[in-house]
């Protein structure tokens, strides 16, 4: 263990600062000293981030006159969040999701650009093992839910079709579970990887997704119960699209009519991502798409508009400059 062994306990090697600090005898001086010490950070971005974090943390403690019990409760809560994490369960990301932090970071890093499809939260249910699926094939095994066909084109913001874009897609079955939530999972289901064809078209059979609760059996679940919030996500179909030269897009389509659209537990729904599922009751159409004879199905038809990387970087940079100016004003 650090500090133990043959020799004497040693410091981390950084000497006391060259500047003088007053003794931290009052709340004001504690805050001032902590902020002053951030000047020692060599990396300017790190210094900027930690200083801002400390300003807001100290402000929060001061403004709320936080009690010792409340601070200990917070520490114990965060401890439980850490203890709940495993290789396949990330309770900290879930916490970030329900606090709206994931959605906010995502919104800032994927600013809307000239008609580009907007982003949505990734969530914890993406896996690397989705099978490659040919256009027109199914991502779901029979019996997993009501039939849905998903189709559209992948286009650039100037309308040019993008061929060979890789589209990862995943969704719940009709019971509201991802395949990874079944202890008996033997292979991926309700997920797949399709590629757009030479004209940008893609299409695949899927099932109609349903609303489902985010994991509620841990400290994040307790938190939501404690503050009177539900833990539901409205029904949605996830997509992650990659094509060289374009900003990678993580998004989801949200079929309209779901009672949780406006109060999504993780703030992932944007108006432009709400879609109308068309009812198709035409046997010929169903058969053309590979559904069994006599089937009706829902059609989710939406193009995906990718933003050229350069255009996305430029928008991010401009927004960051504006935010910094705003903060300084
Ligand atoms: C999801 O949509 O899969 C999801 C997103 C955030 C938290 C939990 C689930
Ligand atoms: Fe999801």
Automatic annotation (TrEMBL):
Q: Which SUPFAM superfamilies match?
A: Aromatic compound dioxygenase
The Catechol dioxygenase N-terminal domain is annotated at: 43-115
Keywords of the record: Dioxygenase, Iron, Metal-binding, Oxidoreductase
- Intradiol ring-cleavage dioxygenases domain spans which residues? 123-285
GO biological process entries? catechol-containing compound metabolic process
State if Iron is listed as a keyword: yes
Alphabetically, the GO molecular function entries are: catechol 1,2-dioxygenase activity; ferric iron binding
Q: From the UniProt entry, list the residue stretches annotated as the region Disordered.
A: 1-22
Reported cofactor(s): Fe(3+)
Pfam families, sorted = Dioxygenase_C, Dioxygenase_N
What family is reported? Belongs to the intradiol ring-cleavage dioxygenase family.
> Which PANTHER family does this chain map to?
DIOXYGENASE, PUTATIVE (AFU_ORTHOLOGUE AFUA_2G02910)-RELATED, INTRADIOL RING-CLEAVAGE DIOXYGENASES DOMAIN-CONTAINING PROTEIN-RELATED
UniProt protein name: Aromatic compound dioxygenase
